[in-house]
Specification:
338 residues, alpha/beta, Rossmann fold, seven-stranded mixed sheet, four-stranded antiparallel sheet, 13 helices, disordered N terminus
């Protein structure tokens, strides 16, 4: 297993986690008598100071709900979220203060920006909400410049429809940066952008980490993106993290069958792509045992027959939130024991 991380810093090791979640659960009531949906079903997750963590998984696995609960936008059913060592409080005043330190960057910049607001007003909105008492014009200009829109004054009076997709995403990032947060949660930050622009936005996020010490949780379905930007990766399936660790370790030597399947369909992957069969994740119908067992290619092939009963009937523990790699899989556990 490759664990060489010399090309990357070791963020968060001195001061501990900036943001941490413990046994986080978010349950939504079912509609018209349907069972409740366990969107997040027991997650531990740490993000260190100056660290970029990629949260990866298929659509419907719960990663966006998890991200919103970490920001206080969705109140967890149980479990705790702590920021800078203090449990998150849910009063309006406490949340307002917290969201100055932790900002959300949404997937679609066209939907994030009011078409009737200029770029200046879009970026200045956060300052006005939080009662900023300094030089608003200078703060907006600095945020736009940091987001790569230079000279910033040239963009002040433009409207979103006058910008390219990459420029709109930079405006959204500038709107988050203007409050000088310590953490950004970016939900599919480049999914709606052309391939030629994706690299520019990813390079921007890395530069912001290096220059400002910014921490980030990047929510994505793209393991290739995780490889290019993250220090650590957490792979999520049906409400729970099933594999986690340093990005080089997880993506060069994946252990969980689900992670292997996700990696197998990348263009640069060798071998035959794994086509997952069975029903896609349904948070209102979480199976007993390993939640992936009904779609597991290893179990279906017979290779995991020795642990098949455990796969179908024995639940797996919540993985630790940070540090060394970990995997929730009975088959991998047996291989390691052997």
């Amino acid at each position: 297993m490759s664990t060489d991380t010399t090309a990357r810093p070791e963020p968060g090791t001195a001061t501990g986690a900036l943001l941490s979640a413990r046994d986080l659960r978010v349950v939504f009531p079912g509609r018209r008598g349907a069972p409740p949906a366990r969107a997040v079903d027991g997650v531990d997750l740490d993000i260190g100071a100056g660290e970029i963590v990629a949260l990866v998984g298929e659509s419907g696995c719960g990663k966006t709900t998890l991200a919103r609960s970490l920001l206080g936008l969705v109140r967890p059913t149980s479990g705790t979220v702590a920021f800078d060592g203090r449990p998150l409080a849910y009063s309006s005043g406490a949340l307002k203060s917290y969201r100055k330190r932790a900002q959300l960057v949404l997937q679609d910049p066209s939907g994030s920006l009011n078409p009737r607001h200029t770029v200046y007003d879009a970026v200045a909105e956060g300052l006005r909400i939080h009662g900023y008492a300094g030089d608003e014009r200078a703060a907006v200009a600095e945020a736009l410049a940091r987001a790569g829109l230079r000279p910033p004054e040239r963009f002040f009076l433009r409207y979103p429809h006058e910008l390219s997709g990459g420029q709109r995403q930079r405006v959204v990032i500038a709107g988050a940066l203007v409050l000088e947060p310590e953490l950004i949660v970016a939900d599919e930050p480049v999914a709606s952008l052309d391939a030629s622009v994706r690299g520019e936005i990813l390079a921007l996020l890395l530069r912001l980490r290096d220059e400002l010490g910014l921490s980030a949780l990047v929510v994505t379905h793209d393991l290739g993106l995780a490889w290019n930007i993250a220090d650590r990766v957490a792979v999520m399936y049906l409400g729970r993290v099933v594999e986690t660790g340093p990005v080089e370790s997880v993506l060069t030597n994946p252990r969980h069958p689900y992670t292997r399947a996700l990696l197998s369909v990348l263009p640069e992957s060798e071998g035959t792509p794994v086509v997952l069969t069975g029903e896609p994740p349904d948070p209102s119908r979480i199976p007993s045992g390993c939640r992936f067992h009904a779609r597991c290619q290893v179990l279906a092939s017979g290779a995991a027959e020795a642990v098949a009963d455990r796969c179908r009937g024995e639940d797996l523990p919540v993985l630790p939130g940070g540090g060394a790699g970990a995997v929730a899989c009975h088959w991998v556990g047996r291989e390691k024991a052997d």
